[in-house]
Design goal:
With 262 residues, the protein is α/β, with parallel strands linked by helices. Helices cover 50% and strands 14% of the residues. It has one domain (4-259): Ribonuclease H-like superfamily/Ribonuclease H (Nucleotidyltransferase, domain 5, 2-Layer Sandwich), CATH 3.30.420.10. Strands 3-2-1-4-5 form a five-stranded mixed beta sheet. It is globular, with a radius of gyration of 19 Å.
Length: 262
């Protein structure tokens, strides 16, 4: 089977970049640097959501489903630097050429990875293949690549389910809960920066991992809806995810399974 790689990122303000762009002193605390940027952004458009090139990646969580089974893991600080996190993510695409799946990956996760990868000088030729490379299957990428919004080598579930209409977008948390899945547990994207400042790096990683498993489970239901899986195959795969998570000795998976309906 073609491996399926579901991914989700978490980011924080790029404090070093903000200091550089706004000529802010090193003595100014990180929280004040970020607040300075938030205030400028609010004055500009009413939101403190920073531009994507100023989002520093601190976690990429992944689910890989392949012939070897189901696996969930994270590439995360403090063990890895941002450059290493992004480099390893794209190295996985280089090695496996998986189907990649996201929730709003085209609107947020991938553009962030593009900008930050460019800043760090990271090569990702397989990911950027659009039919002109030296791979033996390069021509296939002309018609189905990771970049095109309307190709499925990258499947942005949120974008596709909304038929590419932003006003029709649904929050992953709400849709997951309506489907009987756990949804978000104890944190959302808006709380990541405050959690980072509090030193709760593990909590950010755990939150990202539960988000990516929610996304995989929504993907399975979508595969059943569009006839790529039978009901029995879907139910069998969902059961295997439950079993795999139950074998991981971690509090966030115990909480996740406890919140998961029948």
């Amino acid at each position: 089977m073609t491996p399926v790689l579901v991914f989700d990122i978490e980011s924080i303000p790029d404090i070093a970049g903000l200091r550089l762009l706004h000529d802010l002193p090193e003595s100014l605390p990180d929280a004040e640097v970020a607040e300075f940027a938030f205030q400028k952004q609010r004055a500009k458009n009413g939101s403190d959501f920073l531009p994507l090139h100023l989002q520093r990646v601190v976690v990429i969580s992944c689910v890989m489903r392949s012939d070897e089974g189901f696996k969930v893991w994270s590439l995360a600080e403090p063990k890895l630097t941002e450059a290493e996190i992004i480099r390893r993510f794209f190295a996985g695409i280089e090695k496996y050429t998986p189907q990649i799946v996201s929730w709003n990956g085209g609107g947020f996760d991938l553009p962030v990875l593009h900008y930050r990868g460019l800043i760090h000088g990271i090569a990702a030729p397989r990911y950027w293949e659009m039919g002109e490379g030296d791979y033996k299957d390069s021509r296939d990428f002309k018609f189905n690549n990771y970049i095109s919004r309307y190709h499925t080598r990258h499947l942005d579930l949120m974008d596709l389910l909304a038929l590419y209409q932003p006003r029709a977008n649904a929050p992953l948390d709400e849709l997951a809960k309506l489907m009987g899945l756990p949804g978000k547990l104890g944190m959302d994207g808006g709380a990541v920066w405050s959690a980072w400042l509090a030193g709760e790096i593990g909590a950010i990683r755990d939150y990202c991992e539960t988000d990516v498993v929610n996304t995989y489970l929504v993907y399975l239901r979508f595969q059943m809806m569009r006839g790529q899986m039978s009901v029995a195959e879907h139910d069998e795969e969902v059961a295997s995810v439950r079993d795999a998570l139950a074998k991981i000795d971690a509090a966030h998976w115990r909480e996740f399974l406890g919140a998961w309906g029948a």
